[in-house]
## 1
Amino acid sequence: MVVGPLLGRKRDQNHLSTSQLGGWDAWNARAGWGGADEARDGTHTILGMSVQQIRLFGDPILRTRASEVVDFDKELRTLVTDLTDTMLDAPGAGLAAPQIGVGLRVFTWCVDGEVGHLVNPVLDLTEEEQDGEEGCLSFPGMRYDVRRAHGVVATGQDMYGEPLTVSGSLMLARAIQHETDHLDGILFIDRLDPEQRREAMRVIREATWSGEPVPTVKISPHATFGRAR
Ligand SMILES: [Zn+2]
């Protein structure tokens, strides 16, 4: 099963720059979500949606390799729903399970109006590369140019355990690579050149959100397989 823009379908757009396609600002392109009541545990609900607190840089779970999913059960489907709702609420082009405190190999994406998810992704990257601006919901307000493969074929499973392939280029390929990195504890600042990375670390040190205590979830909203932190 193939979901999302195909490489062939996207090829005629290759002459456009990523900024002409909406660029990484598409992370913030969606509007109209919000107005939610925030609960004491940092989560909130909008018309049945379950928006989780997003973990920020400094939280150790973002540096921990996530585990393969083996149980394709109701809890996994709840996790996919939580990831989707939290991603759309942020809004963002993608969100990986560790970013909401769950150490499992699952991510969701939202690119060009299409929303999807992938479990246990394995990536096949094109040799051709792309340069473009990238941001991360775990680094509020920060954007840097990051070189990525131009296209990707990602294979894995859907939330029911059925084989799933997601193929795409440009923004979708960038989002898939960014989110899969999260599952290996790799963050987008790791992909910057040394000078950019020094600048990013300076910005982080001065950021208002930096150094905030790591959130704890006293009562998990759903089973987290003992891997929530
Ligand atoms: Zn990210």
## 2
Amino acid sequence: MSEAHDFDQYDFLSADSSNELEIDPLAGSGTYTVVSSLPSQVQHAAEAVAGPPIPPASGPFATVSIRCTVNGEPVEVPEVWVADSLLFVLRDRLGRTAAKDGCGEGECGACLVLLDGEPVLGCLTPALVAEGSSVTTPEAYGDGDEVSGALAAHCGAGCGYCLPGIGLTTRALLARQPEPSEAAIRESLSGHLCRCLPPGHFIDAVNEAAQAVKRRG
Ligand code: FES
Ligand code: FES
């Protein structure tokens, strides 16, 4: 089921794979479609909450220390409130600001990070579930790999706000499926919103990154 909204946005699950800009992003108007099924990143966030044991804490203002690795570096974060999001801890406590704080409510995908290799939305994932886990933020890659190069080549005309999260989703996708179909690319990116560019730019970028990774071997 889908529902039409007036907004300057594009939907990765729509049938239109055109590279043509049909809506002027500066005009502040247009039409996009919201698909009511949950994107996989939200499902992963929900699984993360239900999965690993949460450190003991009691009372609404209880805090705990969490230990995890961030981009391979062991970190310990004291006084994490039970309601702190993983995004808040990464950005405001640890200074890893490449994951963006967009909508703050699971709609845009700008906050996406990898938790033990799985894409999760940092804004919806409690920081406590990172205890004992491996967290990967966009800083782990910088601008130096095939995905960064392909996104810069195909999506460089946009503002770039969505690109760190889309880059991580793309890397997780290519780790699972080295040669993804267009349908798999669209499903993978369906949790991301881009205000600047239509889906075709990102599909081309993912395909180019897949070919580049394959050539590297
Ligand atoms: S900031 Fe998390 S989905 Fe938008
Ligand atoms: S939001 Fe501007 S490039 Fe995607």
